[in-house]
Write a sequence for this structure.
């Protein structure tokens, strides 16, 4: 089994943080995405979406999409971490926060970064105005997360879950790529980010 990735990218890190938390060591292959290696065979022949990460099983089956890969690892390597939850209500609550933070946070932050920085202008039409609108939308989403974290130590409740991995990576893009500060108006979100940053597997 091999994980094709670009180590520092948020989507690759979703899988590597998850796999470390459940104690699964992965063989990795670096894909030079800035140089377009992901857009050409052999990678493009293996991946349905042409992006990293991609998990290639020993059987030759290929699994794209970071959350699908995490789901596979969680089921293929039984563990006690419950990062996708156990009871029906836990699983649904984790899925709910995972989707909220992905759709209103991580992917909006990606759009902001890609369209403002134009890092991928060799492969997509970058619209700077859309980048700035996306940056505003993700900025507006942060108080919603702050309010949730005033009530709950982790996004989906009392325990760490896959939704927190997504939130952590979103907050990295927000602060790093987009230079949005988690200021004194977002005390719960800042404390949450600092708490997650101390977990060794998140480094
Ligand atoms: N929904 C996908 C997103 C994957 C994605 O956007 N990967 C980026 C790196 S974070 C990538 O491969 N970018 C290269 C490109 O867009 O050409 C997932 O979660 O796996």
């Amino acid at each position: 089994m091999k994980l094709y990735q670009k180590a520092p990218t948020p989507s690759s890190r979703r899988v590597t943080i998850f796999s470390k938390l459940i104690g699964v060591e992965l063989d990795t292959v670096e894909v030079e995405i800035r140089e377009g290696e992901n857009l050409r065979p052999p990678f493009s022949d293996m991946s349905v979406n042409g992006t990293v990460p991609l998990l290639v099983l020993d059987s030759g089956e290929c699994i794209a999409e970071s959350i699908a890969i995490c789901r596979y690892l969680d089921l293929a390597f039984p563990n006690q971490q419950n990062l996708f939850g156990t009871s029906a209500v836990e699983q649904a609550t984790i899925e709910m926060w995972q989707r909220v933070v992905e759709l209103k946070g991580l992917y909006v932050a990606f759009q902001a970064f890609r369209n403002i920085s134009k890092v991928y202008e060799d492969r997509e039409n970058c619209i700077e105005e859309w980048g700035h609108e996306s940056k505003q939308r993700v900025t507006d989403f942060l108080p919603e997360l702050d309010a949730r974290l005033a009530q709950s130590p982790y996004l989906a409740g009392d325990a760490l879950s896959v939704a927190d991995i997504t939130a952590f990576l979103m907050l990295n893009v927000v602060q790093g790529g987009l230079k949005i500060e988690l200021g004194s108006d977002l005390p719960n979100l800042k404390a949450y980010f600092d708490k997650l940053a101390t977990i060794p597997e998140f480094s």
Summary: The radius of gyration is 17 Å. The pocket of glutathione is lined by residues 9-11, 33, 38, 51-53, 65-66, 120, 123 (CB under 6 Å). The chain has two domains: 2-76, 88-202.
